[in-house]
Amino acid sequence: MQQNGLEATYTDTGHERWAFHYTQDPLTRYLRDRRLCRALQYISSELEIPMEEMHQWRVLVVGGGVGGEGTFLANQGFTDVTVSDISRKALELCRKFDKRLQTSVQNAENMDLESDSYDLVLVQDGLHELPQPVLGFTEMLRVSRRVVIVIEPHLSAVGKLLGTKWERRKGHVNYVFRWNQVILEQVTRSYLLSDKARVKAIRFWDHNLLVGNAVSKVPSRYRLRAAKAIYQVLEILLRRAGNMMIGVVVKDEPLVQSGR
Prior knowledge:
The protein has a single domain, classed as Vaccinia Virus protein VP39 (Rossmann fold). Helices cover 41% and strands 21% of the residues. The longest helix is centred in the first third of the chain and has 22 residues, at 26-47. By secondary structure, the protein is an alpha/beta fold. The relative contact order is 0.15.
């Protein structure tokens, strides 16, 4: 049901429909890429690996749709990026829009990939759309050799009060799963059966639509600066109440499990 719903979503093959992922507009790029930039900066500093070396990693984007995250990584200098999704039509668009990217049709809850086959496995706003988000996360842990990045809603009072609890798309229904440090760490430890992995949940604010609408009243040349200022204020005043999470797992050794 989910696959059919997604295939219907990607019937519009026009570039304009998906321009948000590929535009060069500075404000849109900032709003779209700030979470990914922050995640990569943390990984680089945590592992103390130069970004140039990270660029040689094999990277898998889970639930990557038409390839927005993949294109971001390729633009950053990553040379081996694969975008996976359950929708074949989405991946057809991905290859059409950015020929630098490889694609792989995968069910995120049961990926037909070898364990430890990618250095970095990343998902952005994709796990909570799965029927079983935790299963999708443990699959990412299995497939990753070094690092997993999860960018998803954070469990918070604000999220419970104002956030969406159920998402319904073309007959498909899913529960919006929210994460925090405790959940991320418990799932990681219970699956890897190890205390050696480093687990970090970075909480922050992310309201791209609201911020974009707020700065739309500002003269165009000041919009990017205004958007950055809004987020800086939110970080200072309400950092501990942030609605989003960048979850990072650094695996210190390859996962070995029988039968996979």
